[in-house]
Amino acid sequence: MKKRLLRTAITTALTVTFAVPAFANPFSDVPPKHWAYDAVNKLAAAGIIDGYGDGTFKGDKTLTRYEMAQIVAKAMGKVSTVDQKIIVDKLAAEFGAELNELGIKVDGIQKQLDNQIKFNGEARVQYDNATEDTTYRFRLGATGKVNDNTKINVRLTTADEKGFDKSSIDSFNSTRIDRFNLDTKIGSVNTVLGKQDLILGKGLLYNSNEVDGAAITGAKVNWDKLTLAYDNSGPMY
Q: Do 190 and 219 have their domain in common?
């Protein structure tokens, strides 16, 4: 009986001994050559996090996983570019367990990252062989999330009021805002207020590059969707 108990105790001890390494120790050092050091150096150089005076993390000083998680937690709400978001996402995945210990859920980090202002852009240069002229267009847009149902859109463009590209004789500095609106959804009804594009019937009924007004979609009449908009020329359905 005693031998059986001793054998059971040894087996249990061995099981625990071999199971412990499967869990990362939050106070163990992150190896000096770990990719996370390069990642935090990039964030420090961009001013997202603070380094050691000169904005860098010294290669001869290792950090624990807990310390690295603290760095990620500080950086998660400060990213402003797609590249920075990719870096923080990767760090959050690597140190997710430590972040959870800090009371910061990885899905919460993702939500904060998604709430950042997102930028998009477009640049087009076109040469017309018939006229021997070159036209160009540049657009820079931004979308800011207010909440799960509301966002703000703004876009800067070099195109004119009708959406035509600028030619070589036009001034490249003549930029303007052609989109500035509030997009919100209440129930199944979506409303866009402000400067926007308006296309009805896939462009066959109406196609305007720029309208100052409101567009409402999602309301149903006779089991069909209704689009209602209004601009200076009057209501359009």
A: yes
